Amino acid sequence: MSTRCNIICKIKREGDKKPQQFAVLYHHCDGYPDGVGYDMKERLESASDIKRRHAGSFINSMVKDPMDDYEITTDLHWDVEYVYTILFEPDKVTLSYHEVEDFGHPETGKEIIIKVFE
Q1: How many domains does one find in the chain?
Q2: Among 69, 72, 67, which residue's Cα sits nearest to residue 56?
Q3: Which domain range does residue 112 map to?
Q4: Average pLDDT rounded to a whole number, residues 63-82
């Protein structure tokens, strides 16, 4: 069985009170932190500062290669085991995840920060 995950992409601009969700991605396999979590951390570390700060360009780079298995979706899938969040802010990008505690309810679980890119 595959370890499925979603990636929620949020952006918080200057003056925003809270972040706005602008994209949700789905990955069908290797969704655990040593798989997708590691891949996203590596992508953020290797991206140029400008590309990392431009949320749309970064997300586009994740979905443009069909061999990478990242897909844009409309909402969280009910059968995921992990949910990642990439929060793009003017001065930093935060990558975090939570393991879904209640299968079928992807919003459950304690958030763990993987890395803050400043």
Answers
A1: 1
A2: 72
A3: 5-117
A4: 87
